[in-house]
Design a protein that fits this description.
about 270 residues; binds hypoxanthine; Rossmann fold; 5-stranded mixed β-barrel; 9 helices; alpha/beta; 9 strands
């Protein structure tokens, strides 16, 4: 058996030992979402990611590393802080080990949250957008032969990767949530204004540096995915924007109230099995 499968097995076993039964919904919290999510769960049980074998810890401020399990919107929900990113230097297998272990444990569905730049002036900071698709501009795939649990290439279709029925159920409850296409770039530098112009012309609505690997890994094991972006800034060069990590965190904090409501609605709308 490959080392990666051994690590996933150990992590899935530790999750089971720590929390018991798997959650209906696991939520990967992105930049700025963690603070808002912390107080949302009833009867919460917490564990530090560092105490779980093989759960990689983040190296960037604003990504707190804790798993919290409890009830949210009447659903057994696990909030996962401490997302890691390709730009921190991690290989794709590390980025998605948590998702693979969550799936193996029996998690019902996966909600991925992120902060994103907007490519449209009519989607200003504070907007919440449910992804309807993505365009990947070079974030490494977790399905490459040397990144899969069994060390074999996996060919997987990504049609309707972001579950349309889940998205529409959320948008029924929260009509202010738009649907959009996310362009993923590896970062960590923000884009050039020329890149922003190109991405907008190609049909993307948002730009960010995360989410895609986890979504692909979940699809490969049949776990339904919804992804939600909070717009924290206009893309570089739009209305003179010069994005910064500080701005991303400040804007996310300023709009956290609505984000928490939408997060709760998204959990309540998750597929039931
Ligand atoms: N570009 C890429 N990633 C981001 C941005 C951005 O403008 N804002 C938040 N994450």
């Amino acid at each position: 058996m490959s080392t990666e499968q051994t690590k996933i097995d150990a992590l899935a076993a530790a999750l089971h030992e720590t929390f018991g039964e798997a959650p209906e919904v696991a939520v990967v919290l992105g930049s700025g979402w963690k603070e808002r999510a912390a107080g949302l769960l009833d009867e919460a049980q917490r564990v530090d990611c560092a105490d779980l074998p093989g759960w990689p810890s983040p190296r960037v401020a604003g990504h707190g590393a804790e798993l919290t399990l409890g009830q949210l919107a009447g659903r057994r929900t696990l909030l996962c802080g401490g997302r890691i990113h390709s730009y921190e230097g991690y290989p794709a297998a590390d980025l998605v080990r948590g998702v693979r272990a969550l799936a193996q444990w029996g998690t019902g569905s996966l909600l991925l949250l992120n902060a994103a730049g907007s490519l449209r002036e009519d989607l200003p900071p504070g907007s919440l957008v449910a992804l309807r698709d993505h365009i990947n501009f070079g974030i490494p795939s977790p399905l490459r032969g040397d990144q899969t649990p069994e060390g074999k290439v996996e060919f997987v279709d990504l049609v309707d990767l972001y579950e349309p029925t889940w998205r529409e159920a959320l948008r029924q409850q929260c009509p202010d949530v738009e649907a959009g296409v996310y362009a993923g770039l590896p970062g960590p530098n923000y884009e050039t204004p020329a890149e922003i112009t190109m991405l907008a012309r190609l049909g993307a609505d948002l730009v960010g540096m995360s989410t895609i690997p986890e979504a692909i890994a979940a699809r490969a094991v049949g776990v339904p995915v919804l992804a939600l972006s909070m717009v924290t800034n206009l893309g570089a060069g739009l209305s003179g924007s010069r994005p910064s990590h500080g701005e991303v965190l400040d804007t996310a904090a300023a709009h956290g109230g609505r984000a928490a409501e939408v997060l709760s609605a998204a959990v309540s709308a998750a597929p039931r099995r």
